[in-house]
Design goal:
The chain has 423 residues and is an all-alpha fold. It is built from 17 helices and no strands. The longest helix is centred in the middle third of the chain and has 49 residues.
């Protein structure tokens, strides 16, 4: 049966094209972000400028999220994604131009800096459209019975690209410099544009084309808050990311607590990603749709325990193991959450639901880093991490008690029903 086939989603040609496309886009985007951070700090030598880069991206991404979801639900997904990639190529070329060796002789440093901020702001606007477009498109490429398997491969691809992109950026900056590193990003974006033509245009399944924007947005938000499965999954993940943001404090642990230097910092930074990636590969072979609610609660509870263990550890290898298993539990959480979103979201509302998801989870990454920094300042670094892990545990226990419906959520029955219909 397809649900037991670890390569079920990969048997669809367009899904393979989609995965390659997704990898290139995430790889290029994350690579570009690291290069720009490096360049901006080189120009300013001011840590605040790095914070401004984050704000320039998250403010438009968060503000435009719901509107972007409405546009996605009203549009043909393949062509909309083509437009997004076209704009991405414009941004990438602009940044490539701004870092050319001769630019500093004709432009002032302040002008270069503000123009870079402008391109990052445009990228934030584009980010609001990318997520819903990709989420909606993948649901039109594979049948519902293989959604869990597709979610596993999709998440694994994202995880691998988001790890390799920044690492590659670090090497290319050293080898060929910022300017030509951004040329590589521009080339990758052009390649993704060409690859997208390997996916055919998809039907628009929204029966309410031309629906007023405000009414459409209200319907999307109302649906999320009425769906206990979706709301529960998003809320749990948001709390875990918000309070479990130990990654933001890794430089402090590496330098002052564990005293392992830059190499140890690299190992600590990679440990969660390695754990998450391996888990996602394993879930392709071992489905986790049965008793999904209970497994999601257990995964996030385990994540909280790992964060507390990391916070209390003063031994390097224990810290690495704790972060590795935080990635393992986060990988389980990510696959289950993506499966819940795909199965529980009607086709005509995928853009808006994905936008709400990006507002819940995407913004909590930045807010989580801020929360970690603030609590570390007020409580001390170790206390802040332990506090975050404890809040995660309390949230999981509370959710499990007050929401027995979510605790009993089982996606396997729904998958079996879809498979029976398609057969």
């Amino acid at each position: 049966m397809a649900k037991r086939d670890p390569y079920a989603a990969l048997r669809f040609k367009e899904f393979n094209v989609f995965l390659l496309l997704r990898f290139i886009l995430v790889f290029g985007w994350s690579m570009q972000f690291i290069i720009i951070e490096w360049q901006v700090y080189s120009l300013t030598k001011d840590p605040l400028s790095l914070g401004i880069i984050g704000l320039m991206e998250i403010i438009p991404a968060f503000s435009m999220a719901l509107f972007a979801g409405h546009i996605v639900d009203q549009s043909e997904k393949r062509n909309l994604l083509l437009k997004c990639i076209g704009l991405f190529s414009f941004i990438s070329f602009g940044l490539f131009f701004l870092t050319s060796p001769n630019i500093e002789s004709t432009w002032s440093t302040k002008m270069i800096l503000y123009t870079i901020y402008g391109f990052v702001f445009m990228g934030g606007l584009l980010r609001a459209f990318f997520g819903p477009s990709i989420f909606s498109l993948v649901a039109l490429i594979v049948p519902k019975k293989v959604y869990p398997n597709a979610a596993t491969w999709n998440s694994s691809t994202w995880q691998m690209a988001s790890v390799l992109g920044p690492a590659t950026a670090g090497f290319t900056i050293n080898w060929i410099g910022v300017h030509w590193s951004l040329c590589i990003v521009f080339g990758l974006v052009l390649l993704s544009f060409v690859l997208l033509f390997g996916i055919s245009k998809k039907p628009i399944l929204n029966p309410k084309i031309g629906e007023p924007v405000i009414q459409s947005l209200k319907e999307g938000v109302r649906f999320v808050f009425k769906s206990k499965a979706i709301l529960g999954a998003l809320s749990l993940d948001m709390i875990a990311v918000l309070f479990g943001g130990a990654v933001a404090l890794l430089p402090v642990f590496a330098q002052d607590i564990l005293e392992v230097g830059s190499e140890g910092f690299g190992v600590l930074r990679a440990a969660p990603a390695v754990g998450a990636f391996l888990t996602m590969l394993i879930t392709a072979y071992i489905p986790i749709s049965k008793n999904a609610g209970l497994k999601l609660l257990a995964a996030i509870f385990g994540f909280g325990v790992c964060i507390i263990t990391f916070g209390l550890s003063s031994i390097f290898w224990i810290s690495v193991v704790a972060l590795f298993f935080s990635g393992v539990t986060d990988g389980v959480s990510m696959v289950i959450r993506q499966t819940i979103l795909q199965l529980k979201t009607p086709d005509h509302m995928r853009g808006r639901v994905s936008s709400v998801n990006s507002m819940f989870v995407g913004s909590s990454n930045e807010l989580g880093a801020f929360e970690s920094g603030l609590t570390a300042k007020l409580m001390g670094t170790v206390t802040a991490v332990v506090f975050g892990g404890t809040m995660t545990l309390i949230t999981v226990i509370t959710t499990g008690i007050v929401s027995p419906t979510f605790r009993k959520l089982d996606l396997q029955k729904e998958l079996d029903a879809h498979e029976a219909q398609e057969e």
